[in-house]
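Two records follow; treat each independently.
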Amino acid sequence: MNKNILPAYIAIIAVTFALPSCISNKKYRELDGSKMRLNESFKRSQLEVRDLRARTQTMTDQLATQEQKYESYMNEVRSIRSSYKQDSVRMQNLMSLVDLKVEEFTAYKIETQKKIFGYENEIVKLNTHIRKQDKVIQVLSFKIVKERKQFVAQKKEIINRYERKIKNLATIKSSNGV
């Protein structure tokens, strides 16, 4: 009889370790893959934010340079106006030229400000996207931890159940005198 129980013990232990977990490997790999894709998306978003910030800085620097040019043009206009009484015909020609430059600069300034506003809006959108991705990563991480804990608890319960059955079999065997 002892020879028959040993294979039964081995079979019970083998079945215990062969039972499927509460979360399949496929599901786990899907969740893990999803987490990795979210991390990659997050990294790409961070790079995009960095690039947009660099572009915004460049545009800001260009705007400052253009504002200096604008100030320079305005100084030139003041100078021309002071000599207006001396040479009115020449002054009117120069004034037309200066007004044209001021209009060009103003149009350029407005266009540049619109671009900066657009970049700032993109940065806000990307920051919002990054925060959402962070939340998704946190939720997925929490799910993985929770499912792992459930798996461990189920595995312990199965092992305990089979250990009790083995003890019961041993008790029955010893009470039968085998």
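The next record belongs to a different protein.
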Amino acid sequence: MFATFFGNAVAFLLLLRNGYTTPVVEYNKGLRYEEYIVEHEISTVNARNSALTIDVQSIVAPSGCKECTSEEKRYCLGSDFINDHCCCDRRYHEVLPFIPHTCYSGNQLCEPVMECDKYRRLRTCCCDILVLKKWKARFQNSSCKTVGGTAYMIIMIVSSHIVYIFVNYFIT
């Protein structure tokens, strides 16, 4: 054991003396990391409560809005819409309380897909009602599944506990 250790130590020292060294990793000194903080957040519970209480008929498109194209509808229902919301709207007045989302603030984070003025026009003309309908339907459908899922979970917990008691009673 000692001979193996001694032999390895001598080989290592010889390698060092002959100019073979372990590589040194140099970090890029110009590389900077940006810290992001949560600018605002709408939880799923808060979004569900908002979506289920807001009446779809209460959202009226302003005058001058044209019919939404399929491309505009796709934008509204996609992730680019939330990205632009986080870049263009600020927390002072949350305009999408019915969508669960988190927006972060940071200097280099925000790059809107669409110009903010176009985003705001499209949001008020097309997106608000489309997105509210989508999330309202999703939350209404999920509430039914949650009850069944909860009942299933309770049955599974109780049955696993009964099996545990049964096994411990007959094995010990």
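Discussion point: The chain has a mean pLDDT of 77. How would you locate this feature using only the token line?
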